[in-house]
From TrEMBL:
Residues 218-331 form the Phosphatidic acid phosphatase type 2/haloperoxidase domain. One of its GO terms (biological process) is sphingosine metabolic process. GO terms for cellular component: endoplasmic reticulum membrane. Keywords: Membrane, Transmembrane, Transmembrane helix. CDD domains: PAP2_SPPase1. This is Phosphatidic acid phosphatase type 2/haloperoxidase domain-containing protein.
Amino acid sequence: MGLIHMASNVKTSVAQLCKNLQDPHHVARFQKICGVSGTFSGISIERKCEQEQLYNGTCIKHCQGESDNCDIYADNEKVSDGHRQRKSTTTGNRVDQDGCKNGLLNGTGLTLGAGEAVGYTTNTFPSGATGVSSSENPTNGCGVERISDKDAASQKYKSTVKPMRKNSLTGDIGQEFVIENKFLYYLFTFGTELGNELFYITFFPFLMWNVDAYVCRRLMIVWVWVMYLGQCTKDVIRWSRPASPPVVKVEMFYNSEYSMPSTHAMSGTAIPFALFVLSYGRWEYPFTLGLVLSLSWCTVVCLSRIYMGMHSILDIIAGVLYSFLILVVFQPALEVIDNFNQTYQYAPLIIISLHLGMGLFSFTLDTWSTSRGDTAQILGSGAGFALASHVNHRLGLMPDPAPSQLPLAAPPFGPGLVGVCLLRFVLGMGAVLLTRAVMKALTIPLACRVAGVPADDVRKARQHMEVELPYRYIVYGSVGFSIHCLIPQLFRCLNLS
C-alpha cells in the first residue's frame, strides 16, 4: 500500500508540474521580459476577466458581470473594428454598462493613451449624481487601463510590427505587437527560421556540395525520422497552441496547427547534436567547440518558439527529450540504414514504398492542414536522398573517403575556397529551384486529373490527400535526388567538384 500511495503522489505531482509548464502565462511573462507586448497589454486579464472559450491559439473572455446575449450595437451605431463596445447609462449612484460583447480574439484589445477617452463611454454625470472619475476607476469597469504620459512618451522608442507571415491555414494576418528589444527580436526570428523550409532547402545542399556528403546523407536520415515522428505525435495528442491573450502571437504561420511536441525544438536538437556526433572524429576540431555550438543552436531555436508565442514550456521540453530519445535509438542504426540504402538490390523499391506508406498513414491521423503537406515534403526529400545514395553507389559516383584518410582536415580558408563554394551553391540552388518549379507545374495538374479534382483553385485542390501527397512526394523527391545525384555530376562536368 505504501508503494501504491507513493506512486499515486508521484503521478499527481508530475501531472501538476506538466499543467504548470503548459500555462500560457509563463510564455507571456517570458515575452514581456524579452520586450514583447501586444495590443491587449492594457487589459487586466488576470484580474478582470474569466476565460470562457478556448480555441486553437485564440480565446474569448467576458468581463465579470457580462452576459453572452449582449449586442455590439449601441445606440444604433454599428461598430466593426472587433473591439469591446460599451454603452454607459447613469442611474443615481450607479453606472450601468451594457451592450457589451468582448472582441478579444487573437490578441485584439483596447488601450487608452494619455488624456484619451473612449468614444462610446462617458464619465459625465448629471448634477447631484455620484460618479466615478477616471482617476478613481482607471479601468472603466472592464479592465481598460489608461497609459500615463510617461508611458506614452516612451512609445517613440518602441516598434509596432505585425507577424511576418499570415496563418497558413486561415490566412489570418494576426494583430500588431510592440517590440522594445530589437536585438532579441531579430535573434529569435533567426532562431525560428532554423526550423523552417528555407533553412532546410539551403542547409542540406550546402552541406552536401561543400562539406561532407557522408555526414549529410546520414543527417538526412535522422532529420526525416525526427520530423515524421514529431508531426505524427502532434496529430495524435492534438494540443492547441498557447492562448492569446495572454500570449502575444509574434508568429501566425503555424498558429492553427497542433503544438505538442514542438517539432522546431525537435529539429533544433536533432540536427546540431547529430551533426556533432557524426562529424566529431571524422573532422579535426575541438570537442568543446562542437558541444558549445550544438548547445547554442538548440537553445536559440527552443527559446525562439516561446518568444514567438507558438509553444508552451512543456511543448519545448517534450520536443527536446523526444528528439534525444530518437537520436539514442537511431544513432546505432544509421550505419545499417545507410549501407542498406546503398547496397541492397531492391532498396529503391523498398525506399519508395516505405516513405509513401508512411505518408499515407500520417494523412489518416487528422483532417487536412498544412502540416500534412510538410510531412509529405519531408518524406519525399528523404526518399529522393536515399534513392540518390543507391544510384551513386551503383555507378561509383561520389565515393566516401577511405578510412586511412580520416580524420579530415579543413582546407586552407581563402578567397579561392570561398569563391568556389559560393559558385557551387548559387549554381546548385538555381538548379534546385528550376527542378522544383518544373516538377510542380507538371505534378499538380496531373494529380488533379488522376484524382478527378478541379484544378481551377490550386489551394483548394491541394486540400485533397489524393493531390497533396503525390504532389509533395514527387516534387521534393525529385529535389532530393537532384541535390544528391544530378547536381554533383553537373559540378563534375564544370570542373567544380
